[in-house]
Amino acid sequence: MTSPPQRPDLAAMLAPLLRETAAAELPVLEEHGLTMWGYSVLVALDRSSMRTQAALAEAIRADKTRIIPTLDELQAQGYIERRPDPDDRRVRLLAITESGRAVKDAAQTAIQRGEDRWLSKLSPTDRDAFLRALQQLTDAQP
């Protein structure tokens, strides 16, 4: 006979927090004129510019055809550039612009300031350990 689990499942612990943090991000993103997908695109492009649309979709785990309207909107706002790949003119290379980086940085700063509501419940040592562990789990994703 097996003993009962000693802790809740990860999804059971993370899901309520993820719902709350995502809900808290929406007004911040709206204030900066961004959607959640738009913000995700800018964050990904800021980490690694000049991605193809297909590589970007894979990086943010979105369907490549569904992000096209988001890319159109970000380009119209002047937040990204799309250029033909000189090696394959059917492919578009993406890059974040300086204004895209500025709006991403402003939104990210405001979002992280809001996250302090949850993180402040941890001691500084626990907070650092939590963020480090979360980063390791994120980096370990295929």
TrEMBL record:
Secretion signal span: none
Coiled coil residues, start to end: none
An individual GO BP term: response to stress
Entry's Gene Ontology molecular function annotations: DNA-binding transcription factor activity
InterPro entries recorded: HTH_MarR-typ (IPR000835), MarR/SlyA-like (IPR039422), WH-like_DNA-bd_sf (IPR036388), WH_DNA-bd_sf (IPR036390)
Residue ranges constituting the HTH marR-type domain according to the UniProt record: 7-139
Protein name per the record: HTH marR-type domain-containing protein
Organism taxonomic ancestry: Bacteria, Bacillati, Actinomycetota, Actinomycetes, Mycobacteriales
